[in-house]
Amino acid sequence: MAAHDGQLSALGRGADCDRAERSLHARTAAQRASRSSGVVCRPGNQVERLAPPTGGTPPTTGRSAPRQRLEGSLPDPLAILFDVDGTLISTGGAGTRSWRWAFEELHGIPADIGEYTEAGMTDPAVGRSTFQNVLDRDPTEAEMRSLLAAYLERLPIEVRSSDRYRVFPGAEDVLRSLHSAGRVTGIVTGALEDAARIKLARADLNHFLPFGGFGSDSADRTELTRRAIERGATLIGRDLPPERVHVLGDTPRDMEAATAVGAVPIGITTGTYQAGTLLDAGARVVIATLEAYPSLIR
Question: What are 211-223's pLDDT values in tens digits?
Answer without folding.
Answer: 999 999 998 999 9
